[in-house]
Structures are given as C-alpha cells and as structure tokens.
Amino acid sequence: MCDICVMTAVKEQMLSRRGFFTAGAAATAAVALSSGATTPAMAAGHGGVVDMTHMMDETFPTYFGEPGISYEATANFAENGFNLNVLTVMEHTGTHIDAPLHFSADGLSVDEIPVESLVCPLCVVDIAARAADDPDTQVTPDDLSAWIAANGEIPDGACVAMYSGWAAKARSDGFRNADDEGVMHFPGFHIEAAQMLLETGAGAIAVDTLSLDHGPSADFATHYAWLPANRYGIECIAGLDQMPAAGASLVVGAPKTGRGTGGPARIFGMV
Amino acid sequence: MCDICVMTAVKEQMLSRRGFFTAGAAATAAVALSSGATTPAMAAGHGGVVDMTHMMDETFPTYFGEPGISYEATANFAENGFNLNVLTVMEHTGTHIDAPLHFSADGLSVDEIPVESLVCPLCVVDIAARAADDPDTQVTPDDLSAWIAANGEIPDGACVAMYSGWAAKARSDGFRNADDEGVMHFPGFHIEAAQMLLETGAGAIAVDTLSLDHGPSADFATHYAWLPANRYGIECIAGLDQMPAAGASLVVGAPKTGRGTGGPARIFGMV
What we know:
Two copies of one chain form a homodimer.
Chain A: H1 6-15, H2 23-32, H3 40-43, E1 49-51, E2 69-75, H4 77-80, E3 84-90, E4 96-98, H5 115-118, E5 119-126, H6 128-133, E6 138-139, H7 141-151, E7 159-163, E8 188-189, H8 191-198, E9 204-207, H9 221-226, E10 232-235, E11 248-253, E12 262-264, E13 266-270
Parallel strand pairs in A: 5-7, 6-8, 7-9, 9-10
Antiparallel strand pairs in A: 1-13, 2-3, 4-10, 4-12, 5-11, 11-13
Helix pairs in contact in A: 7-8
C-alpha cells in the first residue's frame, strides 16, 4: 500500500478510466462515490482518495439544533438559462473546521491558516467500541499513549482524529442524541488529551461528532484549551472508518473566507 | 524536483519546523504564506504546496458587481466568549467552482462531484503576454495545440487552466475591467477550445478571471459547451504564475453543499 504518494495512484486511476467524465459515467460515479466510499484502486489495496465529508443541506444536524444552511434560488435553468443560489450559512455547519479565532479574541481566522497546515499527516484514535456503550466517553491521555505505543510519536503538523463511529448516525437523531433536558450525548476530546497534544507538534484535532468537547460539556474546556494556541479543529468529519491508524494524510479544503471563524470544508483522505 | 509526491515533501517541511504551530510562528507564517506564496521547500526546488485561492470578503469583485458575501456576527468573543458568523454567500464568489448544474437542467451538483475528480493533473496554458495587450483575448485551439506539442497529451481527468495574469488585478477595478457601457473586458476560453477539450479526457477548465467565457461574451457559449457535459469549471483561481506548464496537480476543496451549483473552494497546487 502506497500510504503517502497518492497523486500517482490517482493519476493511474484516471488513466485507467478514460471517458470517466462522460455524463452517464460521472452520474453513476457520483452515486457510487458518495461520502466515504472507497475508490476502485483503494479496494485493490493500491492507495487512493477518500471523501471525508458529509453532504450538507438544511437537514444536516447542527450543534445549536437549527438548520445551518438555507437556500435562495436567485436563478433557475428553466426561466433564466442557469441555476444559482444565494446561501445563508452558519459557519459551523456540516463537515467544517474551527479556526483559532472561533474561541479566541485574535487567533487566526480561516483565511489565515496556511495551506501547509491544511495538508497534514492523519492519526486516528479509535474509541468506537467504548462509545457504543457510553456516548459521553472522551479521548483521554491514555488513549493517546496507546496510539503512540502502537504507532510511534505524533508527527509534527498532524491532525489527531477521534473515531467514535458517530458519522454513521449523521442522518438520525442519534447524532445530537439530546436527552429530555436537551443535553446532548456524544463523544469528544477530554481537555487533558488536548493539553497533552499541545506538548506535541500536532496542528489539529478532529472529531466525527458535533463538537471537539463531548456532548454534555457545559464549558467548552477543550475548545478553550486548543484553539487559542492557534491550532485548529475539524468537526463532523466522515470516513474515518476507512482510514488506517497511521500513515494516511488529510487535505482540508476550507474556503478562504476573510475574518472567518471556520467554515464548511471538503476533506480528502489520502491513503 | 519531485512534481507529484508532494505529501512526502510537506511532511519533511513539517518535521523541519517543529514548533511551527506555536502562536507567534503560525501568525508570522500566515502573513508570509498568503495567497500563492511559495513554501521554503519549494523555494529550494523541493516540491511543496501553493495556495491557489484568493482571500474572499465583501470587497472581492464579482461577475454581477454586487458584493458576493455579507457577514452577520451572531456571537463575539467579548460578549459571548466565542466568535461566530452567519454568512450570506452567492455561490459564485471568490475562488470558486462551477458545478455542471450551474448551466444545465440536471447536471451534477457540487456535492455530487466525486473526490477523484477534485484531485487532478494541472495543465497551465499561458496567454499572459497576449492578454496584456488585449484583455478580450481567448484561449484557442491553437493555444491548446501548442501546449500539447510542448508537453504531450492532456492527461485524463486534467484541469486545463488559463493563465492570463489577471489574478494580480483581483483587488482593483481592472479585474472586472468594465467599460462605460458596463461591458467587462477580461480573457476566457473560446468555445472552440472548450469543444476541443471535450474530445479529450480533461475533467475541468480553470480561469484566473471572473468567467470561463471572456468578459464581453453575451451568450455564455463556453459555459453552455462545457458544463452540461458534466465537467466542471474553476473561476478566479490564484497562483498560476507559480505553477509549471505540466507536471503539477490540483486538489480542489469545494464544500459538499447539497444541490449546490458551485461554491467557494480552497484550491491547493501540488508541485
């Protein structure tokens, strides 16, 4: 398995699929290659690219519970000859990043995060079995120590991702998992794990849930520990079930919105 | 020069810059690594990543002339302990993609474009010298033939990009370059060039101007030739001045908005 040099594999895939972009083939591929689907090359153990992004529309769950995006179709093909929407988007909707500015007075806004920080090694910390029994569980320093014991030091610039299995719930009430008092129950990073990672060169943490902090958090302790140090976060990431614990890379396609505190992003997993 | 396997180079850069993500270093890097800046590794001829994205805010020029984005700050750090905006965004603002659905009744929406199509070889067609004399100039079949004679066939899945030098004008009236009648003057792809590329496996065309069609176009002929074939476009791309004619790759980070006709994207150039 080529775990780094995915560009070569992707080009080889394309060469093997001349005509891929004809209308019918592309439409079929779009269905087959929805969020997190593996490529033919990956299935053959050859390396490839995974879409680590949920489709985002007005039905996607949000932290605050209200729809995160609304659409105004200002042109349509039948009447105007083209389609165009004006979107109203809460920055922290769908698969998105938290820029340092989200929880600091003057941290980096999303446009200020350099592209080198958005292309990074991926470390996957698997707590899915525990999360299945306890939705409030958290990534702890012990989890990180176990990952390091198995895989070596956290690479500089890495994104350390919590895999809790929550992405599979993204289209159900189980994603927010709110109780009768409205308190949500989903996993996140414990502040002590964030503090441990601040001692490394890790550049980002990612969760497959709605918040870096676990659902019942009342104080956003992990957000306040992590983001003001000018490191960034990713929430609602998909596709971690298809990524190795170590050796893959992420490309985090976050639009370059001036003064942005974060925003929806297309995230690529390169294996 | 390693022109494909950029991941290795990026990791090596990170290893050589342990502590990069401390607050001061990151802030400095964010300034130094603004749109299109080269990385230290690239400067040393080692391969790296280029930000091919303009910063987008309410001052960025748009095709229709109105601001493409507006901000509502619904929380601020001083009063709420965190910053958060709700953005109203015309889909075709800043460095963005045109999904096939933009100019077709039922083409692929942006969320339906598979990630394999968003990681692609880059072919740069340089018409900057001609555009300096004639802002209405267009990429022609002759330009494509000259590129092929110099560099070989267009790779399957490639993004063929027009480099006209227009990105340098992005913060001036010269970007729209409207005359007294409001007709814009900037370069684009001639429909015959688009038709020639439809005979290849190219997956996308890109321009460093506001439209795939040149400014004075009254009929969007190139949009109508290209997008309904379920190939996509990129407008307002930056950084082409730093890319080779052949051998580099793009990663097109377009958020996965359901029913989206396109949208602002973070675009990475891998050399």
